[in-house]
Amino acid sequence: MTKEQYEKLRENKHFEPLWLELLNASGFAGVLPTGGIVDRRYYPEAIPVQKNTLFGVAEPKEIKRIPYEDEINEFLKEIFYEDWMDDNDWAVCLESWLTESGKSIQSLSNDLQVGMKNGYSIESQFSLIKSMLINKKKQ
Known about the structure:
about 140 residues; 3-stranded antiparallel β-sheet; globular
């Protein structure tokens, strides 16, 4: 997602209320030390938002760690993160990319594990994917 695409979404402000409502209802809403509201599945350091029925905030759900989650998040950040992004911008960008690609952190983890069973290291898989994504990004 380019800065211009993100700014257009942000300018219209149509996605933010719905995204926040769905995030709060999911039980995965969290707050970063900087104050940004994020999905704790992508930001495990975020503090869970407490249940609040008045505002539609569900009981915080336990987050089961996905194998290689940190490595996947770091890899995606290395590819897609832009200097102008703050934590909230990055959360929206990551969520958008995962939605558009039809992927999830769990599915990416599963793919990595299949590759490892077939003799490919995490590093070699990331290197191949990185070159493919960078080439696609240039097009």
